[in-house]
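Q: Hi! Curious about what Cytochrome c domain-containing protein looks like structurally. Here's the sequence.
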Amino acid sequence: MNRKFQAIAEQALIVSAIFILFLVLFESKLAVPVWLQSVGRMHPLFLHFPIVLLLLALGMEFFRFNPSNAANAFYRTFLTNFWLIGALLAALTVIMGLFLAKEPGYEGETLPWHKWTGIAAFFLAAIGYWCRPLTWYQAPVAKGLALVTALFIVVAGHYGSVLTHGDDFITGPILKSEPVPLEDAIVFKDVIQPIFEQKCVSCHNPDKLKGELMLTDVQSILKGGKTGKLFVAGQPEISLLLQRIHLPSEDKKHMPPIGKSQLNPQEIALLSLWIKAKADFTKKVIDLPLNDSLRLIAATFLSPVRQEEENFDFAAADEETIQKLTTEFRSIAPLARESPALAVNFFNKTAFTSEKIKELKEIKEQVVFLNLAKMPVKDADLSQITAFENLQKLDLNFTDITGKGLKELTGLKQLKNLSISGTKVTVKELQAVLPDFKSLNTLVVWNTGLTDGEIKQLQKTYPQIRFIEGFKDDGKNPIKLNPPQVKNKLTIFNEPLLVQLAHPVKGVQIRYTTDGTEPDSIKSLLFTNQTLIKASTNIRAKAYKEGWFGSDAVAFDFFKRTYVPDSVRLLLPLNRVHQAEGAKSFFDGKLGTFNANSPAWANNWLGVRNNDLALMAEFKRPILLSSVELRIMEETETGIFPPESIEVWGGNSPDQLKKIAIIKPTIPTKYRTHILQAVGGKFKPQTVSYLKIVAKPLSQMPEWHGGKGKPALLLVDEMFFN
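A: Let's find out. The predicted structure is below.
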C-alpha cells in the first residue's frame, strides 16, 4: 500500500475507534435518524468482508515469525496491509451494527453477547495492528493474539447467526428429528409450530422481537404483538396472521418479508384450517375426522402410521433400460433409495398415446406407482395398465375414463390406492366394480360429481375403503377468498387484448371496475372472459362466492404500446445503482417491482436524481403520436417520487425538434402507500420521426418529508408511446 494511503487508513482507524467508544458510552442517548437506518441495515451484508480478511490476516500472523516468512519483505508488507484493511472494515461493520441495534425488535440476551464480542474483536484487531512493530511483540504474543482475536470473531459470528436464524441454526440439521408418526402427532406442536420455527421465529424470538411479537411458546403466541392478537380462534378471515400472509409480496406488511423464505400453499392452508378449527393447542391429528382437510394436509408433513418396511420380491430393473425409457414426456425413478420398485410419471398430454404405456413392458414387474393425471387416457387404454402386476398406486385424476372402464383394473391384485378425481364416474358404476377390488384401501373421488350422500353411502357399504372427497364448503364457516389472478402472459399489448382473469375456487364470481373504485358484489361489472381492452387500463377485481367472505381487491395494470423506436439512446447519465440495460430497457416489456436496489430486480429500473432523465428515440417511418406515458415507482418513505415534469419534443430531424407537450404529474402531499403507476398524458396528434423525452426528477422533496429540500429519486422501467 502506498505510504500516503496507509497513513490515511491508520488515521481513519484511530478515528473509528474513538467514534465506536463514543457510541458505546452514549448508547442510551443515541437516536439513529431515518437516513442512517439504511446504513445500519447493511450490517448483515457487510460483516463478511472483515471476517474473511481478519481471519486470513490472523492466520498469516500466526506464522509470521517463521524464519522464511520473517525474512520475506513481501509477506510482511502484504500482511500489514491486509490487517489494516480488515481492521478498518471491522470498525465500519461495528458502527453499522450499533446503528442497527437501535431499531425496534432487537432485544434479549443474545444481542449484548453479539455486540460486545464484536466490539472486542475489533479492538483486539486495532490494538494488535499498532503493537505489531514494537520490540516486545514476538512469536508467543503474536500467536496468542491471533488465537484470541479469531475466537472472538467466531463467537461474535455465532451469536449473530442466532439473532438472524435462531439458536438451532447450526445444530438444526444434525439434531433434526425424524417426522413424528401420524398416530402420535399433536396438531399444534408437530404441524403448526414447525411452520413458525422455519418461517417466522428468526424475526420473532426473545432476541429479535420484531413488532413485539414472539412465536416461541404458546403464551407468547396467544398474547400477540404490538398490532394486536395474532388470530381470532375460529375466524381466519379476520385473523391478523392470515391477513399479513395474504398481502401482496411487495407490501411492506407482508409476512414473511421479501428476502425471507416464504410460506408455501400447504403451510398457508394449515394455518388457516388450524385457526378455523378454534386454534386448539392440545388436539392430536388422529382425533380429527378421517376426511378433515386439516388432517389430510397435516398427514403429508408427518410419518405414516408405523408399519413394517415393505420388501419387494422382484429384482431391480436394468439401469440402461430405465434410462432408455425415460423421455421428455415420461420420468422413471426408484420409489425409495435402493428399492427395486419404480414410480412412473407422464407429462405433456399432446405427446401421450396408449403406446407410451405399452412401451413400459420391459419394467412392468417393477412399476408400483403410475401417474397418468391430466393425460387423455380413455377406457380403452386401461387394458394396457393391467400388465403392471405389482402396481399399488394409480393416479387417473382428470383423465377421460368412466366408471365402466375401471372394470379393466380389477385384475390388479396389489392395487391399494386409486385416484379418479375430476373424472366422469357415477355411483352406480362404482358400486358395480368396487367389490372386485380386493386390496383397494383408498379411493380419491373429489370433484367427480358424486354427491355427499352418495359418498357417505359408498363409505358405509365399503368400510374397508377410505373415500377422500376433499374440502366441501357447507357455508357454515365462511373463510375469505383469495384474490383473483391474471392469466395473460403479457400485460403490455399493441392490439386489442382479451383480459383473462381466473380463480382457483369453482363457482366464484369476479367483479371488476376500470375507474379506480373498489368493486362490490352487486353493482360492479361481472367478469365473463369477454372483456376486451384497447387502451391502457387499470382493472381492480374482487372474488365473491356465496358462503365465503369476498376477497381483497387486487389491481392489474394493462399497458397499450403502439410504437417501439427503431433506435434509442440516453442523452444524460443514469444513477449509478439503477442502470438496468440502458435505454433499451424502456421498451423490453420487463416490468419492475419493488425493492429496486435488490440485485434480483435492479436490472428493471433506470433512475436519476441529480440530472434529468433524457432520451432520444428514432423511428425509421414517421409515427402519429398523441400520448406518452412512463411507468414509475413511487415510494415516498425512501424518497422515490414521480417526476416534476415530463417534456415531449418531436420533429423530423434530431436537430430541429419542437416542444410538443409538457406534462406535470401529481406530486404526493403526504406519506402514502408505495405504488407502481404510469404517469403521462395526451396531446394533439403530431407526426414525428424523432422523439425526445425529458423527465425531470423532483428537485426538492417537500417540507413534510424527512429529506426535505433534497432532490428526489426518479425510477422508470417502461415507456409507452401511442
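A: A fun detail: The longest strand covers residues 613-634.
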